[in-house]
Design brief:
Layout lengths: L1 E6 L2 E6 L2 E7 L13 H10 L8 E6 L3 E9 L3 H5 L2 E3 L3 E9 L1 E8 L6 E6 L4 E4 L5 E6 L2 E5 L3 E7 L3 E10 L1
Antiparallel strand pairs: 1-2, 2-3, 3-12, 4-5, 5-14, 6-10, 7-12, 7-14, 8-11, 8-13, 9-10
């Protein structure tokens, strides 16, 4: 069952017992209390000129909070959903810095077709399932993906610059 509620301009989608968060960076302070490390992540995001970030990986708070910047062309839905993924050891805060990105999503609890085994070194498990929904993000919007959220990012045409903050659980 899909429901959503407005939390200012945010979108919080509820599917059974799972929540997926989509909002604007202007509202990020509302989410700092959801996890002890979210405050550090959003403080970094809000204090940084995101447009000037260079592509690469970096630590924000040691191994607890790390960042990954990418700047590349979006891919077709089929290419992204072929890597329909979730993580066991991290929460993702995915920020669209520039461009128009579409993401696929499905609650992990309803996925039935894992592809291979969980890779602990890369903290990733892939699924052959199809997303239940797709949603869009553009400049200065973010989504939060918990381990319960299987997601397919970087769908789109043209360049997409994004920041993924990995929060250690």
């Amino acid at each position: 069952m899909k429901t959503h509620s407005s939390f200012s301009n945010s979108q919080i989608f509820k599917f059974s017992n799972c929540f997926m968060i989509l909002d604007s960076l202007a509202n990020s302070s509302k989410y700092a209390s959801l996890n002890p490390l979210f405050a550090k992540a959003f403080a970094y995001i809000n204090a940084t000129d995101l447009a000037s970030l260079e592509v690469g990986k970096f630590d924000i708070d040691g191994e607890n909070v790390r960042g990954i910047v990418s700047d590349k062309n979006g891919v077709k839905s089929e290419e992204s959903t072929a890597k329909f993924e979730c993580h066991n050891a991290h929460i993702d805060i995915q920020v669209c810095i520039r461009g128009k990105e579409t993401l696929g999503w499905k609650p992990r609890g309803t996925c039935v077709a894992p592809r291979g085994e969980y890779n602990a070194e890369k903290d990733v498990l892939f699924y052959n399932d199809a997303p239940d929904m797709f949603f869009g993000m553009t400049d200065n919007q973010f989504a939060i993906f918990y381990p319960e959220d299987v997601h397919a990012p970087m769908i789109g045409e043209g360049p997409i610059k994004k920041l993924v903050i990995k929060i250690k659980i």
